[in-house]
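Thread: Modeling a multi-component assembly for a lab meeting

Hi all, long-time lurker, first post. My supervisor asked me to bring a structural picture of a complex we are working on to next week's group meeting, and I have zero experience with this. I have the sequence lines for every component (561 residues in total). Could someone generate the structure of the whole assembly? Inputs are pasted exactly as I received them:
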Amino acid sequence: MTPPDRWPPGHHCGVAISVDLDGESVDLGRAPRANLWGRFSHGRYGLRVGVYRLLEIFREHAIPATFFVPAWDAEQSPGLVEAILAAGHEIAAHGYVHEDHSRLEEAERDTLERAHRTLLKLTGRAPAGWRAPGGRLSPRTLGYLTDLGYRYDSSFRDDDLPHELECGGGPRILEIPQFPFLTDTLFYEVFRPPADVRRMWLEELEAIYDEGLLYSLKLHPRGDTGSGRALRAAVVEDVCRAVRRRPGTWIATHADIAAWWRSSGEAANRG
Amino acid sequence: MRARTGPRPEWPDGARCVVFLSVDLDGVALERGEGVEPLGINSYGVYAYRCGVPRYLRLFARHGLRVTFFVPGYDGEVAPEVIRAIAGEGHEIAAHGYCHESGYLEGAPERALLQRTHDILAGLTGQPPVGWRNPGGMKSRFTTQYLRALGYLYDSSDKDFEQPYRFEPAGPAPGPMIELPTNSAMLDDGHLNPIAMLAPSQILELWKEEFAATYAGSGYFALILHGRAWWGSGTPSRARVLDELIRYIDAHPGVRYVRGVDLARFCLGSSATATAEARDTWLYREPGGR
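Re: Modeling a multi-component assembly
Sure thing. I ran the full set together rather than chain by chain. Output:
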């Protein structure tokens, strides 16, 4: 059923694992900087503990991941940025301070450029991809992104596979979609047990794998709604193991998936 | 399991149980109706057009089933090829608001929107819709009067009974209509959305149990599905649940799948169809008596 050239030779299912590195930038939307204590310190937990736990799992199971990083968080933790890059992962853009881009109006372009410049300076390369903080973008966002040279966006919930999106008549951008049932946040917001999350993510893997589609798993390192705590990270590890155990999974960064799709996958699927 | 629902209605071909599967398409009309751009976190409706509907069509074709799609008029305007593809497979296209209005409209604005969606869907398929379901679970006391005047045979909005019943809306075009009632417990969105977030295997288990209870009881199994991702059943894992549920249902003797229009026509012509009065006095009747 899977078209033969949908994924690179020898592979029949794509796997994209991403981490939204929502650190204190998220808490800053809820409390002033001087008050990031108590329940406004879950983001700091993610930057100090959670993300290193996820990095360790990715290393053990040889998972190349994509980290969507609010630029402000990157500025506060340059050592973390280095650690992510040194492990061979991709760093992509995710707002400056995790802004709601549907409400920025005329400040949107500057915000995108500021985040872009900051990541370029810290990582030495221009980010290839962007994900809307909170999933919210304006009708102008995609056009600004292509102006800045972005090759993909990962904000939509509109398809089982990557696909090209119109950007107001300009060059198209590649979309790598993702869904809330393959994200930790909504489960842990309502304190669902990690075992329930494992069940959901493994059942999703089975169905998506059988159809040869894209398994797009989105994680957060935060201590409240993320997967950074030990019991929750164990779910991530089980899923990584299950992905590795299945033959023919192509586990790749979003940038590599976007490059592949642009060169071959889109044509194969239009075929 | 013992039936606790009083007399069993009569079903087409002497069937023991009817299965009324329907898909509320709910594409981007839902977001447009709320004034929201279908971008990013608000793009689930696009999934209905691109993946959800095509997967449903493959699944229903595999099982040889024809079902009912309730379609907002706006979705018909922005994705006409999707609606034509559905109709082309023999599925029924019924109406589901213009922009999925889930508020209380009354009078001229309501009538105008019903007419608008009616014309859009009739223009797309060449056949005027004869069924309607309220978007977001709300309708006014005038809705069925307007629908009757437009020639509709049935409404499938109310949750007030567990088998179809005949009623006569007042107003300018009196005459009988059929209510095909549903229940929120048999909506896929309740089980998939953030309220419950059940795993696919849990949903399958639940729906099998629901079917078994209905099969033993009223024999009227109405399941509402959605086209969009997340709380719809058109994604890979949830379509598999539906596939397995259909296999489970098929293992029961005397099951008949019906589209809304088929069931409404049958009920209009059957003297065994409950009346609105019977619905209102049901609790006072002896089980087993008609």
